[in-house]
Write a structure and sequence with these properties.
Layout lengths: L1 H14 L4 H15 L9 H9 L6 H15 L1 H13 L5 H14 L5 H18 L4 H11 L10 H10 L3 H30 L12 H23 L5 H22 L4 H43 L1 H12 L2 H17 L4 H18 L4 H14 L8 H10 L3 H7 L1 H16 L2 H9 L5
Length: about 450
């Protein structure tokens, strides 16, 4: 009864337009009262601050700021041009460009929504002008943006690693192969549709100038190398890597303005103006995320008091499902939750309850973490409340219903990859093992 009350409250609050951070906090307090543990709320402030006093959390606002600076400062445009140069002349070339651009952006911003917003405004109109159906172009953009939180750096993985005390470096390494596999699956589907629907592409396709594109792209590609390499090889912490990403991006924005023949003073003024807007946006997003972190601390405390993970683990043991069988069921529950919840909210509610039992049953924490992050991120492109679908629909002008129907084949391809990753853990674990991050 208490669970139904909380679920009903969350549903009505979200439908009423209440911000997700306020919904999370209110639901957490309501959960304590509804379950009869209201007396524990007296020590909640101390509990909250002890739970969020995690150094890794400092990297999130910095990665968000770096992503905002890249979008506003022209780095995104440079990476799209590079993708066009590499795969633009294949049949269905702009579809491949869309996917490749998301791979490049994934190595920088770590945010699916940010990647979707950036590529929708640039690539969807270009694809429509060259003869692609607008709903296909918008759906492909939404689907490819899911690569963002899987290829490191990933804000979702940082959140998960801090929440579940799992190595962020190991999860970053574990996300590389699944992210590239997702790009390969989408490449294959785009190639199939390009032949079926006779999409444009070929030798006559106009490409950006080779020399200028490469000169601009090489510095931008150094950012993911510095971030991922530094974290994985233990040179820097995730927080230090995020600070480096911000510093490099600021310098890149300034250099790009100089390459556009701006005078140094004008370039500096532009960089400062865009930086000010980026800081404002990043601060607002960070505030919302930390409100949800407060709620996560409250929920985590309640879950510990009620001993839910141990109860679920005992049930799994009695049913003899094994780690893979249980993780398949847990993944189905998380996928359903991701269809109606924000990713961070779903992480708060689902992961502390479902995942410890999978680990106790024998699943690897890194494998479970990477796959869970992918699973919940797919909720961003899943009807009825997919956050990326809303962003792409608004930016492209495609109705939400039409986009929800067009995304289904792409979603089917990505769910097939999700199942493959669950059944074959080595696809996720091979690289972290090779790098000595896990046994």
């Amino acid at each position: 009864m208490a669970a139904l009350l909380i679920i009903a409250f969350i549903g009505f609050a979200i439908m009423g337009g209440v911000a997700i951070s306020y919904v999370a906090g209110s639901a957490a307090v309501l959960a304590f009262i509804a379950t009869g543990y209201g007396n524990y709320l007296a020590i909640m402030p101390q509990r909250i601050f002890s739970q969020i006093d995690v150094f890794t959390f400092l990297s999130m606002p910095l990665f968000i700021l770096a992503g905002e600076l890249m979008t506003r400062g022209g780095v995104t445009r440079v990476l799209i041009d590079l993708a066009m140069l590499i795969v633009g002349r294949f049949k269905g070339g702009l579809g491949y460009v869309n996917i490749a651009a998301s791979v490049f952006l994934a190595g920088i911003s770590g945010s699916a929504v940010a990647d979707a917003a950036a590529t929708t405004k640039t690539l969807v109109p270009a694809m429509v002008d060259r003869g692609y159906r607008v709903d296909f172009a918008a759906a492909l953009t939404a689907a490819s943006s899911v690569i963002g939180p899987i290829i490191p750096p990933s804000i979702v993985m940082i959140f998960y690693g801090a929440l579940m005390n799992v190595s962020v470096a190991a999860m970053f390494a574990g996300g590389i192969v699944p992210g590239l596999l997702m790009a390969a699956f989408l490449f294959a589907y785009n190639g199939f549709v390009a032949r079926r629907d006779d999409h444009p592409g070929g030798a006559q396709t106009e490409l950006p100038p080779f020399r200028d594109t490469v000169i601009r792209a090489v510095p931008a590609l150094l950012i993911p190398i510095v971030i991922v390499g530094g974290i994985v090889f233990g040179v820097v912490t995730p927080t230090e890597a995020a600070a480096l990403a911000v510093a490099i991006t600021v310098m890149l924005v300034f250099v790009y303005r100089l390459l556009d023949r701006d005078r140094p003073r004008a370039a500096l003024r532009h960089t400062l103006a865009e930086g000010s807007k980026a800081v404002e946006t990043a601060a607002m997003l960070t505030g919302s995320i930390f409100m949800i972190l407060f709620a996560a601390a409250v929920f985590g405390y309640l879950i510990g008091i009620m001993r839910l993970p141990e109860t679920i683990a005992a049930t799994v043991t009695s049913l003899d499902l094994g780690p893979t069988g249980y993780f398949l069921i847990a993944s189905l529950v998380m996928f359903a939750a991701g269809m109606v919840m924000d990713v961070t909210m779903a992480l708060v509610l689902m992961v502390p309850v479902l995942i410890p039992a999978a680990i106790l049953a024998g699943a690897d924490p890194v494998h479970v973490g990477v796959v869970s992050c992918l699973n919940l991120t797919l909720g961003l492109i899943s009807p009825p409340f997919g956050g990326i679908l809303m962003v792409v629909s608004a930016a492209s002008g495609v109705s939400y219903l039409r986009l929800s129907l067009a995304i289904l084949p792409f979603l089917a391809v990505q769910v097939a990859l999700l199942i493959l990753l669950i059944l074959v853990p080595e696809l996720t674990l091979a690289l972290p093992r090779l790098l000595g991050l896990i046994n």
